[in-house]
Each structure stands twice: as structure tokens, then as C-alpha cells.
């Protein structure tokens, strides 16, 4: 055994203890495995004396033959635990004399990576939902504005109706006066004015009836106007709430964006440099 490999072999256990995660360590010369330290939670079942040719698909063998530091990541499908394997050739006077490799459990990194991926997916869904809610709130705001404009138009129409009713009341009043004057003239005419008296009474009845109907319509219009004003007040309240809701949703969207960036950084940080 080469003296340099012998010195490394004597320190293998100490090397293994320096890893924060569970690790398997292997030391090989050009022909075979000369030291094998399994991990606590997993073992690659590579024993001392295993010929290098029998593990020719491993990163350890490839590093030995290429003279380059190599690293690979594998899932849990092989040994039940995801792991990262790193192989470092050992040189003496410019010549490769062996290789040391460390196989480290990647379980925690895998959990972190999976969590970051799930977080990113959740953020995407929440962002999409938030955008839909913002769009819906914007539509509501537009509808509320249209409703407010229509309410104002209805109030203007009511004012016009009031003006028309004022004219009708004026006509009814004048008709009532004309009917009264006609009754007086009919009374003066005696027997010849009896027919005219009937007409005068009908005119006055029509005027009184018109006046009553006008008063009823005015009451109804006032009730409608009051209802419109209450509706406008409610509409303004909803519009203010919608505006606050949109502002809150925008803040939430900004938060989602920040969380999304954090999940991307977590995914990036969990990548292994090969």
C-alpha cells in the first residue's frame, strides 16, 4: 500500500466525523477498495477488497480513470436514501495512485427542494386566484360606477317629472277656478244655466281628482327618490370597500411575488453543482 494512501486510511474515521450529514467513505488504490466506512442510515454494500472493475459504473471508478474530481446525485430508488457522491483522485508526484470518495445522504436537501417546489406551485395558484379576484373587483367597481351614473340619471328624471306635475297642478288649480266661475255664472243664468252647472261641476271634480293624483304621484316619487339616495349611499360604501379590497389584494399579490422569488432561491440553493 502506498504510504500516502496508508496515512489517509488511518484518518478515514476522523474524516467521516467531519460531515454534518450521514456519509459513507471509500478509499481505493488502482486495483481495489482498501477502506470502506458505511453510513449510519445507509450502506452501499461495497466492502474492502472489492475490485475496481466491478464498480466501473461508479463515480469513484470514473474519477480514478479520468484523474478528475467528479460528483453525481442519485435518488432514493437505489439505496432507499437520496445521496450525493463525490470522488477525488489522489496524486503522488503527478501520478494518480488512488481515489477517495464520499457518499452523503441528500435526504434533507431533498425535503427542502420538494418543499420549495410545493411552495412555488402553491404561490402560482394563489397568484392566479388573486389576479382573478382583482379582476372581479375591478369589474364590480365598473358596475358600481355605472349604477351610480344611472341613479343620478333617475334623480334627474324625477326632478323633470316633478316639474311636469307642477304644471299639472297649476292647470288643475286653474281648472278648479274656471269651474267655480262657471258655476257662479250658471247660477246667475237661472233656468238657462242648469246644463252649464253640470259641466262646471264635472270640471271642478276633474280638477280635484287631478290634484289628488298629482299629490299621490309626488309622494311615490319622493319615496323612489329616497330609495335611490339610500342606494347611492350603499353603492358608495361598496365602492370604497372594493377600492380598499383591491389595494389589499395588490399588497397580497406583491407578497405572493416575494414568496415566489424566495421559493426560486430555495430551489436554486438546493441544486448540487456537478
Core attributes:
2 domains; 274 residues; alpha+beta; rod-shaped
Helix content: 55-70%
Total count of helical runs of at least 4 residues: 5
Main sheet: strand order: 2-1-5-4-3
Mean pLDDT: 81
Major sheet, described briefly? 5 strands, antiparallel
Order of helices and strands: HHEEHEEEHH
Low-confidence spans: pLDDT under 50, at least 5 residues? none
The CATH topology name of the largest domain reads: Helix Hairpins
Rg result = 48 Å
Distance between the termini: 31 Å
Task: Give the name of the CATH architecture of the largest domain.
Answer: Orthogonal Bundle
Strand tally is 5
Q: What is the strand content?
A: 5-15%
Q: How many structural domains in the coordinates?
A: 2
- How would the global form be characterised? rod-shaped
Class of the largest domain in CATH?
Mainly Alpha
In CATH terms, the superfamily of the largest domain is Methyl-accepting chemotaxis protein
* SS class: alpha+beta
Amino acid at each position: 500500500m502506498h504510504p500516502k494512501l496508508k496515512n489517509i486510511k488511518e484518518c478515514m474515521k476522523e474524516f467521516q466525523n467531519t460531515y454534518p450529514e450521514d456519509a459513507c467513505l471509500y478509499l481505493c488504490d488502482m486495483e481495489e477498495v482498501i477502506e470502506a466506512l458505511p453510513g449510519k442510515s445507509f450502506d452501499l454494500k461495497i466492502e474492502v477488497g472489492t475490485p475496481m472493475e466491478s464498480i466501473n459504473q461508479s463515480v469513484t471508478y470514473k474519477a480514478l480513470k479520468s484523474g478528475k474530481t467528479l460528483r453525481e446525485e442519485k435518488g432514493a430508488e437505489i439505496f432507499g436514501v437520496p445521496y450525493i457522491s463525490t470522488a477525488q483522485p489522489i496524486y503522488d508526484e503527478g501520478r494518480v495512485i488512488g481515489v477517495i470518495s464520499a457518499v452523503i445522504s441528500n435526504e434533507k436537501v431533498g425535503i427542502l427542494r420538494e418543499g420549495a417546489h410545493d411552495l412555488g406551485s402553491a404561490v402560482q395558484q394563489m397568484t392566479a386566484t388573486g389576479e382573478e379576484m382583482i379582476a372581479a373587483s375591478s369589474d364590480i367597481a365598473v358596475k358600481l360606477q355605472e349604477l351610480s351614473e344611472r341613479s343620478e340619471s333617475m334623480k334627474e328624471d324625477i326632478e323633470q317629472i316633478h316639474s311636469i306635475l307642477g304644471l299639472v297642478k297649476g292647470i288643475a288649480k286653474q281648472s278648479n277656478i274656471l269651474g267655480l266661475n262657471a258655476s257662479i255664472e250658471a247660477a246667475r243664468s237661472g233656468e238657462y244655466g242648469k246644463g252649464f252647472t253640470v259641466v262646471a261641476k264635472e270640471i271642478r271634480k276633474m280638477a280635484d281628482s287631478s290634484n289628488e293624483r298629482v299629490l299621490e304621484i309626488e309622494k311615490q316619487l319622493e319615496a323612489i327618490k329616497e330609495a335611490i339616495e339610500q342606494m347611492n349611499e350603499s353603492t358608495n360604501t361598496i365602492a370604497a370597500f372594493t377600492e380598499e379590497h383591491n389595494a389589499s389584494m395588490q399588497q397580497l399579490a406583491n407578497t405572493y411575488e416575494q414568496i415566489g422569488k424566495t421559493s426560486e432561491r430555495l430551489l436554486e440553493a438546493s441544486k448540487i453543482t456537478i
